[in-house]
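Backbone shape codes:
===
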Amino acid sequence: MTAKETVGRDRPLERMLLPWVGRLSEGVTRFLLAAALSGAEVMGGHALFGLALVGVCRPGGQGLAALLGAALGYLSFWGFVGGLRYIAAAMMTYAVALALGEFQIYHCRWFMPLATAALNGLVGFVYQSAAGWTQAGAVGWALEVVLTGAAVYFFRLAFDLWEQAGPGGHLTLRQITGVVVLGAALMMTLARVTVADNYALGRVLCVAAVLLAGWKGGVGVGATVGVSAGVAMDLAAGTPGVYTVTYALPGLISGLFVGQGRMMAALSYLLTGSCVVLWSWAMEAGGSHGYEMAAGVALFLL
């Protein structure tokens, strides 16, 4: 009788604490995700993905956690001078969300992508004007503005899967696209983690992810994830399409073995990938990617 009374008294406390624990875990996840994405760069120094995540998160505690994570990430990866530009844009983005979060316009799917891109473009315009405008600088500034809006839009699709999971766990094509883009951005950060200055953790994980996607989802999914991973690695490394071919073609071929044994899919990826590596051996990616591919296939087989 005493035990039942004790359990009965504990349940209201448990019901009161569970929502707070859930909010805390979501805040920590957004903090760490924003910090990690701040390290991803495209086109030699454009680090827009941490800012894009701030544009995705709702105003309040979740958005504040993402803002603090992005600030920490930019300071850690880029230093005070390099990171201050993106921290300023992230603070303005959060301020817009905080000011307009109660209005209908904020819930328009394209509002925050356009607002975040415009604010990043404004801050970037000031920095680029101070450095001096060149053709390469103007192209980089314009592409960063476009990529910022696109990143916010696709990250939002991935977060819809997290925040508004449908019954039965079914994924829509839009949600899958968002998850793929978010995962590719994370791989760009992990590509900075290298062993012996040549072998990148992000590229190893990309091999395992592409192989798993082809083996589970078939030709279409394998090719799609392969192209996404390859484009991300090309943007991070500044290579002209080398990684896109290196991941996309083996991903497509491994998709032919959907539903069969892991070993068959792994062998098909190795054979196809080896042909691509031999073709690109004279380029910068050729030698190192052979070892990265072998490590990624081994990881898939574990």
Observations:
- The beta strands are 194-195, 199-200.
- The mean pLDDT is 86.
- DSSP finds eleven helices and two strands in the chain.
